[in-house]
Automatic annotation (TrEMBL), chain B:
It comes from the Bacteria. Pfam families: SoxD. GO terms for biological process: tetrahydrofolate metabolic process. It comes from Paracoccus onubensis. Gene3D superfamilies: Folate-binding superfamily. One of its GO terms (molecular function) is sarcosine oxidase activity. This is Sarcosine oxidase subunit delta.
């Protein structure tokens, strides 16, 4: 078939494209679907289950059949509906779900076995033997029952997200939507008009109706021009509003560059989160078909779609067409196509006593009962008054009435209600607050009613916002309400398709009925009706009407499934919005990151941070060599480590001490100014939560630290305590984590090194600045700094803090100035080994399962004051737990110690009942000369010296371990105080 | 969802962190008689109504205020929001 | 004057500065920041002649400015004083307040437009869920931006400052660059 006359395509330019390798041409304004029809391609795909040859059903996003693969290479994109793919020069499209060619698909053999694939076949057929499911059945089914295929390469395109706010969101740019947008925009309100098409006008573009005695395109361009000139209105074409969420939030996808060969600098698609005070849903309606035997032959489509192809795209699927209808609307297709010179074989109208509205034959009281033409329709069987005849036609338009596109109105669970007069579901009144449905989406399907209801909806919506809008002068338009005769399917012996995409037939629905899968939600799951990419837009209502016939219950009692977002498919890429790979989430860098990078450090993710894990030197071939060297250098000389990642919170106010007293289980109020104290925070249920240090810089000023991992939650908790629990206290909080670069300087030479960078007159001798002292001072020629004498490693140690921008230089200075003292940078591995050797609890020990008793810190929980978690930490269940933190050392020093090993009495059976505890942390200790571990062991404090078993049943490992003090290094703490 | 912040107006719920039942602001006195029983209830027992619920939200990506939001858990309708600090002060007999 | 050499939040010796069509994004490394929180029953101070703004607002004085960050809490900005102990000076002007140094807690990117407010609004629409229509000059807020926590200050119709925690400066810079570059490819 060549092109018809007219249409909204630009014939002055041609676009080249390919379909299954064939070189074809179309015009700007075409979709892939219309361009294929213009090239006489009716066969566009294979069905999901039976691999039946299929052609177009629809002209819009409801299309169930013509799913194609677009583009190649990494941009290969499966399952795009040919009806929404805008044609561009160079488009490469392929049919999918076939083995071999589209015309001779080897999997079409499935169609012969269709009796085995009836409703519920998954649940019935592949039950036995069980092992076959994973190895045989599932892969075979997935291969056969497929849609398109993925490129298996990373998507090269960019995706974006964005946020918009408006008074009124108008969803749909047809007659109702344009009238709503016009009325709203003239009021000065902030309006967004979103339409999924690339051209505004909706159904007006597909019809020949006159507006004020002129073609509708004129009115549409006029409104479009006016709207474009108004700064308070934003037109978003190619934008699908896919979901209505709480409080006026709508999700939308804008296909920014889907219609271009490559996006260039643009994102491919943008995910918009639109916050709208009010919305008008003017999404139109979708026509429904009428199932009859073999109604899936390529060339059988919706009558309204056939009309749209003829009027908007100037194509007809065949030179001779027939129409099957149960309402007046079907006749319009005959009139419009006849006017364009298409031969009308006849209109088969199920209603008695109907007459033609133009010059074409009418089969009144007739139905189409069968169809021929496996790869393309050739004949339909018309049954009238009990007699049947075959008539020739290359295409059949079917019109069974229109279903309002009310999906978004039921996204908050509002159930559509049945309108007997319209023979369709219309939106319930309890839809999402702030959303008004207008036009065909609300059953107001005539052009005049759509225009009027759209404008009225906008005026009403804005009125609720105290914005005065007035009804615009609307053009005169047709106002015929088409009421279908209730005909839901044509009874017969052959298979009649209800859901084309999922290959669900009338027989499947009958079977579901027989098997008592009658409620609509069961029907859906048993038959797969209404699933997959089209979500049953052309199928659902027909299916439940058939079920209603079978049960004898009226349609309202049969009910309908409710709709959930998304209205149509949304790609995962756009939902990700571009946060991929290294930008999946923020990576926090420490102040010394650039220096560490230059040193060749290996980095590790610690929560959101990237930290130096270790600093390999030339010649070191294994990470353990490096880490052992860093540990020993710290124990023997001086090691330097960036510890900025610990959370830091500034606590000020007259009641700061009392506030911290209640947050930490131990006392903080009595801490002297200029001193630091270790603090343990409990959860209110008595479990140990987080630890750190509190430094009292002044009477009313503390700086507390948290663990790296819990910095955010602890700050939130502190604000909770300040605002909700003790609001009468005078306390002010602010995070200072990023403000200060903090480095740990640890080892016997730590003081000698630091003395070299102190400004004149600063005394950090042991007498002037003892263990657990802190103060503000200046270093390196007047730079303000804070010094804390605290130790995580068990060595003489300090932490020095400077404004972050100087952290990198400070690190470099310490390493250079301390070269003769053995100054060595160390990373998180050495940091871990040093603290395990010293027996300091860290995240592995504070894992949300351990009590202060287990940590050996129960005496820290003050009974003289109330603090968070104190009461519950003393409850019976926790008090009865005898597990205690111990050190563990292998009897044979060559044996490994692994975190996660479970502990058992030597020789005992190993099961849950005999379990004695577990190992929390393990490392190789260069100091001890073997692997060591920390762990919780039942009655651990009484079992020093005992040999127990560490078990790792996953690898059949059994290691004899000696129970020792958790302090492998300097148990008396002498080094800290020197 | 949109949370009507008493100082900042409607803000997207994505800026907030949810905690739960607003009764968590009524913390028992740990030094009082029978504190253990009171804490057992405070820590573990919560109402979980299908309907109107007073709950704590933290404006983490915002002004760091804790809010008490009254919300219908069935419809998600929000009936009001207050600064938790003011509610706590009033409950403690202090001035807001 | 210290002999340690500072680096910028992006790890460079000089602040970042780049043009994208009508937009210019530059790192403001010279601004000192300090938080000011009122203590119990304190009178509202007017440090350095600044009138502390209402919730959601930013106000400007002579070389200093302030924006509201929370109930009874503000951030004070001081141009070109990043390497000084500005917090200490502010404390002397605000008795009865808790002052905390915040200069290096944040990294500040100033976005300026040479074509009025439209490019600034387009940028905001792609970054933050804040209604540009009610975020005119003198507005300030904290919000989320691509998993980052940011302060936004609308200094003028054609000027917007975006601040995030210094450790995440690289991520913010990447997002701003990418967004500004893409906007060049899209009609406003």
């Amino acid at each position: 078939m060549t092109r018809l006359s007219g249409g909204l395509i630009d014939r002055s330019r041609s676009l080249n494209f390919t379909f299954d390798g064939r070189k074809l041409t179309g015009h700007p304004g075409d979709t892939l679907a219309s361009a294929l029809l213009a090239n006489d391609v009716r066969l566009m795909g294979r069905s999901f289950k039976y691999h039946r040859p299929r052609g177009l059903i629809a002209a819009g996003s409801e299309e169930p059949n013509a799913l194609v693969e677009l583009r190649g290479g990494a941009r290969q994109e499966p399952n795009t509906r040919a009806t929404v793919a805008e044609l561009f020069d160079g488009l490469d499209a392929r049919s999918q779900n076939r083995i071999g060619s589209l015309r001779f698909d080897l999997l079409a053999v499935n169609d012969l076995f269709s009796p085995f694939f009836a409703a519920g076949f998954y649940y019935k057929t592949f039950m036995w033997p069980k092992a076959f499911w994973e190895k045989l059945y599932e892969p075979a089914i997935r291969r056969a029952a497929g849609l398109g295929s993925l490129s298996m390469q990373a998507d090269p395109d960019a995706y974006d997200k964005g946020f918009l706010h408006c008074d009124l969101l108008v969803i749909g740019g047809g007659a109702a939507g344009l009238a709503a947008a016009q009325a709203a925009a003239r009021s000065g309100a902030r309006v967004i008009l979103a339409d999924e098409d690339f051209r505004l006008g909706g159904r007006l573009m597909a019809e020949t109706h006159l507006l004020d005695d002129a073609p509708a395109t004129g009115w549409v361009s006029g409104v479009e021009e006016e709207l474009a000139s108004l700064p308070n209105l934003r037109i978003m074409r190619r934008t699908t509003v896919f979901g209505a969420f709480d409080h006026g939030i709508y999700g939308a996808v804008e296909r920014v560059a889907d219609h271009l060969p490559e996006p260039g600098d643009k994102p491919r698609q943008t995910l918009w989160r639109i916050t709208a005070k009010r919305a008008v849903l003017a999404a139109g309606a979708v026509e429904r078909h009428i199932p009859f035997a073999n109604n899936d032959r390529p060339g059988i489509m919706l009558a309204g779609a056939m009309r749209a192809f003829a009027n908007r795209w100037a194509v007809s699927p065949a030179a001779r067409v027939a129409i099957f209808t149960n309402n007046d609307d079907g006749h319009r297709t005959a009139i419009d196509l006849a006017a364009k010179g298409v031969d009308i074989a006849g209109v088969i109208d199920s209603r008695d006593n109907v007459t033609a509205m133009g010059s074409y034959p009418v089969f009144a009281g007739g139905v189409v009962s069968d169809a021929k033409g496996r790869l393309g329709l050739t004949q339909v069987e018309v049954t009238q008054n009990g007699r049947s005849q075959w008539i020739d036609c290359g295409a059949l338009g079917v019109s069974g009435g229109w279903n309002p596109n009310l999906h978004l109105a039921s996204h908050h669970r509002g159930r559509p209600v049945w309108d007997e007069a319209l023979q369709s579901f219309v939106p319930a009144k309890d839809g999402p607050p702030g959303l008004i449905v207008a036009g065909a989406a609300n059953g107001q399907g005539s052009t005049a009613a759509a225009l009027r209801s759209g404008a009225e909806a906008a005026v009403q919506a804005l009125g609720e916002l105290d914005i005065t809008a007035t009804l615009p002068d609307l053009p005169q338009a047709e106002d015929v309400v088409s009421k279908p005769h209730a005909l839901w399917h044509v009874p017969g012996r052959g298979r009649a398709w209800v859901d084309f995409q999922n290959d669900v037939t009338v027989k499947d629905i009958k079977l579901a009925h027989q098997e008592n899968m009658r409620p609509v939600e069961h029907l859906k799951r048993w038959t797969t009706l209404g699933m997959a990419t089209d979500q049953g837009k052309t199928a659902n209502v027909t299916a439940l009407a058939i079920m209603s016939e079978l049960t004898g219950k009226p349609i309202p009692e049969t009910g309908t499934t409710i709709f959930r977002p998304p209205y149509s498919g949304v790609s995962l890429s756009v939902l990700g919005g571009g946060n991929t790979a290294e930008h999946f989430r923020p990576r926090r860098l420490t102040p010394t990151h650039h220096w560490a990078e230059a040193q060749g450090a290996v980095f590790v993710e610690v929560g959101p941070w990237m930290r130096a894990q270790y600093f390999p030197r030339p010649g070191e071939t294994h990470w353990r060599q490096t880490v052992d060297r860093e540990v020993l250098a710290t124990r023997e000389g001086v090691g330097i480590c960036d510890v900025t990642t610990l959370g830091k919170v500034d606590v000020q106010g007259a009641d700061a001490g009392e506030f911290l007293n209640r947050l930490y289980c131990n006392g903080m109020k009595t801490l002297k100014t200029g001193m630091v104290r270790y603090g343990l925070m409990l959860r209110e249920d008595g479990i140990a939560w987080d630890d750190g240090t509190c430094a009292r810089l002044a009477e009313d000023h503390y700086v507390v630290t948290t663990t790296t991992a819990q910095a955010g939650p602890v700050y939130r908790h502190m604000e909770f305590a300040r605002q909700c629990l003790w609001p009468e206290m005078d306390v002010q909080l602010i995070s200072t984590t990023d403000a200060w670069a903090q480095v740990s300087v640890a080892g016997p030479n730590a003081r000698r090194l630091l003395e070299r960078i102190m400004d004149e007159g600063v005394d950090i001798s042991n007498e002037a600045f003892p263990f657990m002292a802190c103060k503000s001072l200046t270093i390196c020629g007047g730079l303000r700094a804070r010094l804390f004498r605290i130790s995580f490693s068990g060595e003489l140690a300090y932490e020095v803090a400077v404004p972050t921008r100087y952290g990198n230089a400070l690190m470099q200075r310490l390493i250079e100035t301390g070269a003769d003292l053995g100054a060595t940078p160390y990373g998180t591995e050495a940091l871990g080994a040093l603290r395990i050797e010293k027996g300091h609890a860290a995240g592995n020990e504070l894992n949300g399962q351990t009590s202060p008793q287990m940590l050996g810190m129960d005496r820290m929980v003050s009974t003289k004051k109330d603090s968070i978690g104190a009461v519950m930490s003393r409850r019976e269940g926790l008090a009865a737990d005898t597990r205690r933190l111990v050190g563990l050392q292998p009897v044979d020093s060559a044996q490994p110690v692994l975190a996660g090993m479970h502990l058992f009495t030597e020789g005992a059976a190993q099961n849950t009942e005999t379990d004695q505890g577990w190992i929390t942390s393990a490392c190789y200790s260069p100091h001890v000369g073997s692997a060591i571990g920390l762990g919780f062991l039942a009655r651990g404090d009484e079992r020093m010296g005992e040999v127990i078993t560490g078990a790792n049943p996953l690898d059949q490992q059994q290691v004899a371990l000696r129970v020792v003090s958790p302090h492998f290094v300097d148990p008396d703490g002498g080094r800290l105080r020197d | 969802m949109l949370i009507p912040h008493p100082l900042l107006g409607l803000r997207d719920a994505q800026e907030f962190t949810y905690l739960g039942d607003a009764r968590l602001i009524d913390r028992p006195d740990g030094m009082a008689e029978g504190a253990e029983a009171a804490f057992a209830e405070y820590v573990y027992l919560r109402d979980n109504p299908a309907g109107v619920h007073r709950e704590l939200w933290f404006h983490e990506q915002g002004d760091r205020s804790w809010l008490i939001v009254t919300r219908d858990t069935v419809t998600h309708e929000i009936l009001g929001a207050e600064l938790a600090r003011n509610v706590a002060l009033a409950a403690n007999g202090g001035e807001a | 004057m210290t002999d340690l050499t500072p680096i910028t939040a992006l790890g460079a010796s000089a602040p970042a500065d780049q043009h994208f069509g009508p937009l210019r994004i530059s790192e403001n490394a010279d601004m000192a920041l300090a938080s000011l929180a009122l203590r119990r029953a304190a009178d509202m101070p007017a440090p350095m002649g600044l009138e502390l703004p209402a919730p959601g607002k930013w106000s400007q004085g002579q070389g200093v400015a302030a924006f509201w960050t929370g109930p009874d809490q503000w951030m004070i900005e001081a141009e070109t004083r990043a390497t000084e102990d500005f917090a200490a000076e502010l404390a002397s002007h605000a008795p009865g307040c808790s002052i905390t140094e915040q200069t290096d807690a944040w990294t500040v990117f100033e976005i300026t437009s040479d074509r009025g407010d439209a490019p600034i609004r387009a940028m905001m629409e792609k970054l933050v869920n804040i209604d540009t229509g009610s975020f005119g000059p003198g507005s300030a807020t904290r919000t989320g931006l691509h998993h980052l926590s940011v302060f936004l200050v609308r200094r003028a119709e054609d000027r917007l400052a975006v601040m995030t925690m210094r450790s995440m400066a690289r991520d913010l810079w990447h997002v701003l660059q990418e967004t500004a570059r893409r906007l060049k490819g899209e009609p406003a």
